[in-house]
User: What shape does this take?
Amino acid sequence: MLRQIEGSRAVAEAVALSRPEVICAYPISPQTHIVEGLGELVKTGALSPCEFVNVESEFAAMSVAIGASAAGARAYTATASQGLLFMAEAVYNASGLGLPIVMTVANRAIGAPINIWNDHSDSMSQRDCGWIQLFAAHNQEALDLHIQAFKLAEELSMPVMVCMDGFILTHAYERVDMPTQEQVDAFLPPYVPRQVLDPAEPVSIGAMVGPEAFMEVRYLAHARQTLALERIPQIAAEFAERFGRHTGGLVRGYHLDDAETVVVALGSVIGTLRDTVEALRQDGLKLGVLGIQSFRPFPLAAVRDALQGARRVVVLEKSFSVGLGGVVSTDVRLALSGLPLHGYTVVAGLGGRAITQASLAQMLREAVADRLPPLSFLDLDQRMVERQLAREAAHRRSGPVAENLLRDVGTMASRVR
Amino acid sequence: MLQVRIHGRGGQGVVTATEMLSVAAFWQGRHAQAFPSFGSERTGAPVVAFCRIDDREIRLREPILAPDVLIVQDPTLLHQVDVFQGLQPEGYVLINSRRSFDALGVGELARRFRHERLTTVPATEIALRHLGRPLPNTALLGGFAALSGLIALDAVAHAIRDKFSGAVAEANIAAAAEAHDFVRQELEELHRAQAD
Assistant: This one.
């Protein structure tokens, strides 16, 4: 049924339709509305016998999810930013143990400086943790990916992170098509665990493994992620057949057929990029967009296949590896090994800085002319940076950077008349 | 595409107003996208929220920089925040006040735009009468329906019932209807004055 609802509500209802048995979460912006919605749904008894466990921290949230999943329950949690960092040790344990937990990450920057706004630093910090990471471009995709995620996680017995842009998607009201319980039940079978803590058939889960078998356990996790590269598009195709819309999958291209310059991106900025690219194509610029839905496993072959006809590739990313540059770019470059392509990394939208069509259009015109530096920062205020560098050069005790910059810009962002 | 920007203060239901506007547009069969300015809003602090309405899927995710419609829930913001920033030449402006644009100190600014698309409505007074609380958002949506004709009053009522229930919903619908009548009368008086 078509409905006009908040992204968080759409995700909460999609998770509810997936019949979770244990939900445990600790509130953190911008994830809060999702777990509040689920809390309300559990309280009505509609999800019975689902239990909502209030926990004292994110570390406890993931620990409860691990315990619940090991006991054979379909387990769900959600977090963001510092919350994801706080649960990091348990995040690695969930994947190391092969437990099919589904977690929403409402993408948000990581401090310091503390910042509640959107970028992809949080999920990127966990890109090597062994979880599958899927990125939603819009709220319909966020909704659909959660239903697909439970199926994928449980088939492969590995956890899945569904990443959606905090505020931009979680707090946006837009049209979504909410499936019925019957549709979801037909798509997503009940959870049959590969391993379970069952008093009737006792096993232990979580043995210490020494050098004799550790590498093999890790390799098997990689082998399962490689298998996911096949299953993700198959599950997306099955979803499309049942629900009538194409969401998820590994990558999705727009105007790639004749594109000389392709912009690669993850998440909600794909929408703004598509509008920008379509406007620039009116001026004869042969631009295309490649959206990556599956960041882990990283679809090397699909990315190479989509980009090999292009002359240049711009990776636009909301993540940043300090001291190197792009995070997504590094993986895209690996996919393009040996191809004669110009590659550019554009870091954009950190800490919630708006990514506008005007700035994207200007950047893309520079890219098409091969005038972009290998690494650039969209709408970086160079004067602000130079002022601080001058301050540091002039005084040893130049003071805290964040406070200095805030003083420079003034605390009110809006212009006062 | 129609782009609406609502300015107000934390606690006045600015974000809720854009959400209800999107629900009203959806109810009329249109695509709509509502989103806040993503701040850590505090009671009394300036707040901005946005709504886009179109006949096709809305993919754009940038903040609304050049609005077609400006709704100001708190007139004290007029001299604190550049609310008119980017307003389209053909744009609509609705300000929550009993006073005129001149009396509010923005007369000169207002004369750059089409005067029949700019008006004020005492939404807080109307809200106090119906709700007993100074929450002007639903009254302003009713006023906007009358000012622009871009959204129907019954769609606004539907959106209010989507967000609230029972007596609260009905009181908000009554506030929206009264503001709608108020603005309609203002516009009729303007037409008569022009005819004379």
Observations:
- Residues 412-417 of chain A have pLDDT under 50 and may be disordered.
- The longest strand of chain A covers residues 102-107.
